[in-house]
Write a structure and sequence with these properties.
About 55% of the residues are buried. Helix 1 runs parallel beside helix 3 and helix 9 packs parallel to helix 12. The chain is globular and about 60 Å long. It is about 40% helix and about 5% strand. By secondary structure, it is mostly helical. The protein has one domain: Alpha/alpha barrel (Glycosyltransferase), CATH 1.50.10. The strands form three sheets. Strands 1-2 form a two-stranded antiparallel ribbon. It has a two-stranded antiparallel ribbon with strand order 3-4.
């Protein structure tokens, strides 16, 4: 099942975890891609990067990967370096939000990044830094858009990934997203507007699109991440011992007949089963390891499809080296996502394809 042949309208900034890749996508397919190669920086002359995990260019993913790394280290029981926390706090803007990266901490903040802000809120909550986390949550609350969703940045239009991440931030802070509304609609209502129903083919039912369009098209990238919010889970996702089989939509009554959560994770389980434990890549062939790891987190959060979770983890682990390393340097964002998947499934993040990912993330900090 390659359900990513039709894509959402507009542009998607798909940030590969550690190496930045901006992919321009339209409703008919991929237009083009540009990749920013990792480069080492001189921290002695660049104080904005001291305490940052990873030597790669942080322009598009600095805060996101920092927060993800902190979450992974906490999940594995490791100590988070104080300079890493200071780096994340210094990056926060006066109004509570985060941008992707502030190269000049003395200048005004650029456009807000809801993904970075949501991830930073979850990371700060995990290390019990509630005051800055509440400020970030307040910014997210003020920037919910009509229909209940969140945009990646102002003017981009609400999307499933950004909405799912924002909802996870509220969950992490103990605020039910169902009570966070704009124009009477919550994030759950927005995600429901993206979910393919009974007019879709049986194989596509339950999937989420990236943005609202007509007709809706299944988007595995969006479904894998947003389903964590539908499962009422924030990062890090805790392991579960209560597993249930995936459910299939029952359209005899004209609707899916099951919850949005059950329909979404059921769709993910079918994709994994059809593709030998992988979420197919949007660009080219092969597996999308980031989305496969996110699908694992969604399925564990929902306690669904243990067999598919095991198959997906086998895929993640078999391809971990190419996902977390670039020019022999660790990509901390990608490594952190794998660590979180290992944590959720009871695996060993200290030995993944022969790599101690926890140690490698910690060692990647800019001194």
């Amino acid at each position: 099942m390659t359900s990513t042949s039709r894509r959402p309208r507009g542009l998607i900034a798909a940030v590969a975890l550690g190496v930045t890749t901006v992919v321009l996508v339209t409703s008919v397919g991929t237009v083009g891609a540009a990749s920013a190669s990792p480069r080492t920086t001189n921290s002695a002359t660049d104080p904005a990067r001291r305490g940052l995990y990873g030597a790669q260019d942080p322009t598009y993913d600095g805060v996101y990967r920092q927060a993800l790394s902190i979450l992974a280290l906490r999940a594995s029981g490791s100590t988070v370096d104080r300079s890493a926390v200071r780096w994340l706090l210094r990056q926060q803007c006066a109004n509570g939000r985060w941008t992707s990266f502030r190269a000049d901490l003395t200048s005004a903040c650029g456009a807000g990044d809801s993904n970075a802000t949501a991830m930073a809120v979850m990371a700060l909550r995990a290390i019990n830094r509630r005051v800055p986390a509440r400020a970030g949550l307040g910014w997210l609350r003020r920037h919910q858009v009509s229909g209940g969703g969140w945009e990646y940045s102002a003017g981009w239009g609400a999307d499933g990934n950004s909405t799912g991440l924002a909802m996870q931030a509220f969950l992490a802070m103990g605020r039910p997203p169902s009570g966070v509304t704009r124009g009477g609609s919550s994030g759950f209502a927005f995600l429901a507007s993206l979910q393919l129903g009974c007019t879709a083919t049986p194989a596509e039912r339950g999937a989420l699109d990236y943005q609202v369009e007509s007709p809706l098209a299944p988007n595995d990238f969006a479904t894998a991440q947003a389903a964590q919010a539908l499962a009422r889970a924030s990062l890090p996702v805790a392991p579960t011992h209560a597993w249930a089989a995936a459910q299939r939509p029952d359209c005899t009554g004209g609707d899916l007949g099951i919850s949005a959560r059950a329909a979404a994770v059921g769709y993910l389980a079918r994709v994994l089963r059809t593709n030998s434990g992988a979420i197919p890549s949007v660009v080219g062939t092969g597996a999308d390891i980031g989305s496969t790891a996110n699908a694992v987190l969604s399925l564990v959060a929902a306690g669904t499809a243990q067999r598919q979770v095991r198959a997906a983890m086998a895929t993640v682990e078999s391809q971990a080296r190419s996902f977390v390393l670039s020019n022999r340097r660790i990509l901390p964002g990608g490594a952190a996502l794998v660590v979180l998947a290992e944590h959720a499934t009871g695996g060993n993040p200290h030995d993944v394809a022969g790599l101690d990912l926890v140690r490698r993330i910690g060692d990647s900090i800019t001194p």
